Amino acid sequence: AQSVTQPDIHITVSEGASLELRCNYSYGATPYLFWYVQSPGQGLQLLLKYFSGDTLVQGIKGFEAEFKRSQSSFNLRKPSVHWSDAAEYFCAVGGGDDKIIFGKGTRLHILP
Amino acid sequence: IAGITQAPTSQILAAGRRMTLRCTQDMRHNAMYWYRQDLGLGLRLIHYSNTAGTTGKGEVPDGYSVSRANTDDFPLTLASAVPSQTSVYFCASSAHDRSHEQYFGPGTRLTVT
After folding, report:
1. Do A49 and B100 touch (CB under 8 A)?
2. In degrees, to the nearest 5, what angle opens at C-alpha A107 toward C-alphas A101 and A109?
């Protein structure tokens, strides 16, 4: 069965520091992988997605993620966070149908 | 460009009452979805529709029903609301292609008292 695990419920980093949010998935075939961001009181916005090809994908707002099949991971990174990056981040996995499974989310806090 | 609209933005509802949450998209997407978001549980799929005229059950369908009479609209109905249905509800849509990218509405915050 498909599943997504985001091990960290909360992450706190200082503004300007680097960021890595972890995501592990379980899926029987090659998955489609996504990262979404949700600002307070808002809906979800797609940051980036992986379907095939280059395992390092670039997204909006300076984010990137790397697909590592051997580790079943799709971690999200950003070299230098800004206060406006404070939000909740969701990793998601999908497959042959249109349904996707979301992780429980990681809330990112930024220290000034 | 509107994308996906949801109504109402928020609602307080007495237990036992019937309520329909509205969702409309203008992207001509085939697939539409309803999720509920609860603290610590992330997003859980309630119902989905791959195309107009068809619907399917998601992870937590009990107490909810949907219909898909046309491409643009996908209403979610709570026939007799209960306090455990207090949540934030998100509608989403996606094109029926390999992109799988889902576009989300702004959400409806529902409180059942």
Report:
1. yes
2. 160
List the one residue out of A26, A101, A49, A71 whose CA is nearest residue B59: A101
pLDDT digits (tens, 9 = 90+) for B7-44: 999 999 999 999 999 999 999 999 999 999 998 888 99
Q: Beta-carbon neighbour count of residue A23 at 10 Å?
A: 25
Mutation for A interface: B21, B102, B103, B108, most A CBs within 10 A: B102
Nearest by CB to residue A94, choosing from B100, B106, B107, is B100
In the predicted model, what is the mean pLDDT of chain A?
Answer: 92
Residue bearing tokens 């959400």:
B107
| Amino acid code (one letter) for A79 | P
Report the range out of A37-41, A79-83, B40-44 with the highest average pLDDT: A79-83
Residue B81 exposed, middle or buried by CB count within 10 Å (0-12, 13-18, 19+): buried
Strand order in B4-7's β-sheet? B4-7, B19-25, B76-78, B64-66
Using alpha carbons, list the distances in angstroms from residue A62 to A48, A80, B48, B99. Answer: 10, 9, 32, 21
Respond yes or no on whether the N-terminal peptide bond of residue A7 is cis (omega within 30° of 0). no
Instruction: Quickly count: other Cβ atoms within 10 Å of residue B75's Cβ.
Output: 17
Region of B40 (left: φ > 0; alpha: ψ -120 to 50; beta: rest) is left
Q: With H, G, I as helix, E, B as strand and everything else as coil, classify residue A78.
A: strand
User: Chain B: residue nearest A95 by CA?
Assistant: B100
